[in-house]
Amino acid sequence: MSSATSSGAAQRLCTLQRHLGTLQGRGMEPVSSPLTTHVLDTASGLPAQGLCLCLSRLEDHGQQWTELRKSYTNPDGRCPGLLLPGQMKAGTYKLTFDTEGYWKKRGQDSFYPYVEVVFNITNETHKFHVPLLLSPWSYTTYRGS
């Protein structure tokens, strides 16, 4: 790599670090979510980037799902900040993954149009991780750490 190329990269890195430094102390620091997910595309062996998902909580004495957040997985297949600290309370939650939309964007048919993972949170002080391993014809999930 030439010194001009590495110098340009170093300059961009310094600019980025200065920008990120200006966010600190202004309520813009990354916040650790008590609920996380990570989706891996097992057909390609890569993170499932751009997968739409919704987080809902069962309300009204178990009669109605309330959508809390709609988001997309990032380039690493993760969806940071599903819940902010203090938002989580004991109850039944559901993550709905739009698997059909994900596979259609890739020109691939799939068997499952969506995946719903329903789980209970009994202690709002714990952290919860819900990974999803996904292919066009199958999926697996578990409680991660």
Keyphrases for this structure?
145 residues, alpha+beta, four-stranded mixed β-sheet, four-stranded antiparallel β-sheet, 2 helices, globular
Description of the molecule:
The chain has 145 residues and is α+β, with helices and mostly antiparallel strands. Helices cover 19% and strands 36% of the residues. It is built from two helices and eight strands, in the order H-E-E-E-E-E-H-E-E-E. The chain has helices at 3-23, 99-105; strands spanning 35-41, 46-47, 52-59, 64-72, 91-97, 115-121, 128-135, 138-141. The protein has a four-stranded mixed β-sheet with strand order 2-1-7-8, with no helix packed on it. A four-stranded antiparallel β-sheet has the order 4-3-5-6, covered by helices on one side. It is globular, with a radius of gyration of 19 Å. The chain starts with a helix and ends with a strand. The model is unreliable at 14-29 (pLDDT under 50).
